[in-house]
Amino acid sequence: MSSIEEQNKKLEELLMSNKESKIDPEVLKKLKGKASVQQDSQKQVAINLAVVGVGQAGSRIAEVFFNRGYNAGVINTSSQDLEYIKVDNKLLLEGSLGGTGKDLDLGRQIFEENEDLCSKFIEDVLGSNDMMYLAVSGGGGTGSSCCDTIIPTMVSMGCPVGVIYILPKDTEDALSKRNSIETLSRLARMSTENMISNLVVVDNAKIEQIYGGLSQAKFWDTANDAIVEPLDIFNSLTATASRHTSLDPSDFAKIISCGDCSVYGVVEVDNYMEETALAEAVIESLNSNMLAEGFDLKQTRVGGVIITGTKKVMDSLPAININYCYHMISDATNNANIFQGVYDVHTKSDSVKIYTWFAGLGLPKTRIETLKKQSKELEELARSKEKSRASAMTLDLGKDMTTSVSDEINRKIKKKNSAFSKFQRGRGSIIDARRKK
Question: Up-side HSE of residue 27: CA atoms within 13 Å toward CB?
């Protein structure tokens, strides 16, 4: 916690403890906002970014950005999903039982009805920042359904708009996969219309492969941090000087304003002194450590690679090792315009980290085809279950329906004329002659 935060927290506790003090919550909120601006201004970045996360997954991403010093806000239709998100700016949109049940039509209706409220909220989160990112997951209902309202609202504020879009895991249901494909199609259209400057595609199925060995408790925290870290590293290091090679803020701006799809990733190299170790790691990273797959990297129009290590590591790292690394990246991207940066960083790790970012890509067609196939198979299975529903709830008595109805009528007539029934109804009624206490 920064000294500014500590001072404001102590002041707030002191004032609130004094029963005679009359605290205006709105004034206190404004003061906190000013303190937040001061705190954020201490973070050195190339481009001042604000982030709005919508839905459960998007909110978690926004929370990680917030913890790294960025202005962030979250929107949801479920109060439960907002409860444990630790950011200052939250907006709950009411209009359903809580959430949307993955119903895109319901979600779009809620956002359309609350367009003015969302616009004011987004304006407050944006503040004086120069660019805004929307973080959403394609599998749910709230995040997927917000795009038609939220993105035009962001564009109307005159700043470049980026989107971090998360594809569903392989284990998710057919509706989640169908929603993700439909939403990606809408985002692609907005990108071709130049509404979206940077569409970062992240695939939970790929993240699950990379971090599958972690416990459930650690998996999502690690995965969400992996989504945010490369963007934050590019934005932070390009704002600092390097005694080696700098990737300038204008270079980074070209990467995130290139348009169409982007994909990024990071790989860590321990045996960095071996001549081809960095190059081999990059080759492996392009196949297994990028946060989404199915892209044709030869479509890359603009990209960036940042190599980091401690001062001691960088002083010992032969230049030829780095050159081999750059050569392999250039080859993989069909000689695209790749900006390069080499930086000393403070870390306890005796290793080299390589961050790569490729922009100007088409859609990840092979991944989309896989999602389509999986969605179709699951939908056919659901239809099969629906067809078998009637037979599953029918008990065969060995008689056809007409015979069963006839038998039931005859049974009731016989029962009505039975001696026992006469006892129950009238003259021969059974009398309880037991002595009453």
Answer: 5
